[in-house]
Q: What sequence folds into this?
């Protein structure tokens, strides 16, 4: 038997130092042969005691901890789980308990009583609360939750939630699709979808298809698994600004900077079915009504046009905008008879489709001003923006809540059921925001989209970031003490907005004071019989 050689260390070489070194050993059965497999032994710690003659050099000093580092704690990833709120709401409905949102106490412990936004909406035509401000505050995304950043950052042009609400899909200037988790907001996947910037993303009503349009005028068809199945090369000569599906999902419409709108058959998309001509400049926005046979478009020629998709003719035109109309969108819930438009004149306007007539196709005596014309007399103006409006979206469950984003990175939330300040038709008439986030982004807010349940808002901007916002906890004092609520050097501060009770609107789920409200439509004159409605598919 060979003799084992050992080295004895004498005290002449220096004092002995005992060091205990923890070593983490992982066992993977696929890496080497093992006669047995024990899942509980996937990791264990081996402690090895070593002796050496190592001595610290003279003048050695331990690392000094920088000032303030002792107060630095690891950042926690915030998670917005709406499952408990839906579970409580379901149990309340089964037990027949009445939901009273006005009795929510301004204490964080009462978050257990916070229900999803859809719990505070109308049921069978009856309001849960007599104060419309309560429902709007219950749906206001005022609390910053998380920011999503790609490894290689590019401006975010478009964003949309998947139909099931589990993920968020964003399109960037580089042509990439990025998937983010809808609950923890962490990165999931990325792929190169287009060769140029993704300008528009739109899911079908059934959720079975996704359309995307890019800066070069191409349209791509995607399955929910993001498998591309069809491409329309050069659908337009210039950038495609927006797409919209028909209610049946068999057709869709595209709007482009070439000034044209094109209607396509989803199954036979080799050539456009019809071309809608009438705008004199770039088409910036387009939407297809979910019930009526109606298409709306906004353009750089300061006009909004309504189109009949069957005859490809213009049926109505709105004047009175001072600058480019950047966003037009129909009301997705409620009566579905309202139209919201965001313009670069620092205003948004709400139009009632039930009060339109053929006389609005010509410019009235007050065209180009804030005064509504004879054909646009159902107009309500949303004021208080600090710069041009670039993005706009309706709340998916609250039909009276509208959120807008501006060029300077601010986000505003409005309740269109409030009485306009300055009178119904005064020169300074307008609805003021119920909540403002003045520093939501560093640059322009290019896209806004609500979660299908309405409890989370996503905003994408040209500052290359995607941010998530949610409702604050009841009485949470830290909800509005972050950098996003610090007013910018240029622009309007939240505290200086006239007529806005910021202490009330910022209270989130806390206490809401009673405000005398009246739906703006009820204050408008009646439509007489000599002013026929010329909207196809709509019977008065």
A:
């Amino acid at each position: 038997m060979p003799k084992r050689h050992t080295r004895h260390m004498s005290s002449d070489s220096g004092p002995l130092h005992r060091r205990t070194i923890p070593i983490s050993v992982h066992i993977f059965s696929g890496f080497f042969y093992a006669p047995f497999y024990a899942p509980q032994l996937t990791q264990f710690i081996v402690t090895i005691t070593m002796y050496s003659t190592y001595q610290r050099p003279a003048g050695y000093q331990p690392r000094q901890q920088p000032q303030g580092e002792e107060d630095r704690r690891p950042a926690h990833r915030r998670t917005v789980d709406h499952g408990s709120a839906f579970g409580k709401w379901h149990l309340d409905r089964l037990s027949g308990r009445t939901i009273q949102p006005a009795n929510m106490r301004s204490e964080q412990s009462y978050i257990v009583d916070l229900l999803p936004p859809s719990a505070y909406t109308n049921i069978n035509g009856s309001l849960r609360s007599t104060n419309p401000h309560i429902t709007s505050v219950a749906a206001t995304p005022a609390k910053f939750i998380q920011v999503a950043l790609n490894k290689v950052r590019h401006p975010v042009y478009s964003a949309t939630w998947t139909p099931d609400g589990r993920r968020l899909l964003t399109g960037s200037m580089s042509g990439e699709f990025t998937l983010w988790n809808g609950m923890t907001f962490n990165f999931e996947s990325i792929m190169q979808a287009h060769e140029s910037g993704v300008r528009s993303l739109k899911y079908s009503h059934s959720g079975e298809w996704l359309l995307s349009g890019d800066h070069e005028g191409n349209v791509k068809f995607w399955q929910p698994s993001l498998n591309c199945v069809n491409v329309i090369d050069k659908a337009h000569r210039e950038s495609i600004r927006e797409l919209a599906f028909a209610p049946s999902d068999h057709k869709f419409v595209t709007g482009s900077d070439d000034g044209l709108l094109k209607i396509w058959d989803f199954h036979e998309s080799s050539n456009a079915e019809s071309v809608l001509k009438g705008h004199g400049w770039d088409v910036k926005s387009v939407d297809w009504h979910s019930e009526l046979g109606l298409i709306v478009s906004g353009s750089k020629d300061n006009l909004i046009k309504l189109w009949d998709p069957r005859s490809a003719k213009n049926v109505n035109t709105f004047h009175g905008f001072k600058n480019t109309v950047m966003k037009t969108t129909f009301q997705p819930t409620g009566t579905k008879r309202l139209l919201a438009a965001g313009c670069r004149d620092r205003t948004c306007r709400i139009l009632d489709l039930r009060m339109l007539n053929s006389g609005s196709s010509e410019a009235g005596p007050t065209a180009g001003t804030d005064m509504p014309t004879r054909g646009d007399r159902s107009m309500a103006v949303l004021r208080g923006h600090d710069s041009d409006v670039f993005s706009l979206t309706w709340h998916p469950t609250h039909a009276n809540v509208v959120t807008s984003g501006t060029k300077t990175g601010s986000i505003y939330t409005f309740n269109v059921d409030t009485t306009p300040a300055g009178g119904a038709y005064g020169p300074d008439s307008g609805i003021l925001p119920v909540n403002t986030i003045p520093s939501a982004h560093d640059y322009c807010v290019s896209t806004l989209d609500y979660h299908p349940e309405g409890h989370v808002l996503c905003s994408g901007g040209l500052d290359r970031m995607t941010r998530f916002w949610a409702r604050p906890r009841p009485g949470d004092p830290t909800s509005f003490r972050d950098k996003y609520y610090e007013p910018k050097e240029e622009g309007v501060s939240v505290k200086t907005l006239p007529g806005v009770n910021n202490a009330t609107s910022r209270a989130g789920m806390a206490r809401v004071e009673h405000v005398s409200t009246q739906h703006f439509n009820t204050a408008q004159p009646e439509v007489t019989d000599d002013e026929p409605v010329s909207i196809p598919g709509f019977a008065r």
Remarks:
- The two ends are 106 Å apart (CA to CA).
- DSSP finds three helices and 30 strands in the chain.
- The first helix runs from residue 83 to 95.
- Residues 3-53, 123-130, 358-376, 491-540 have pLDDT under 50 and may be disordered.
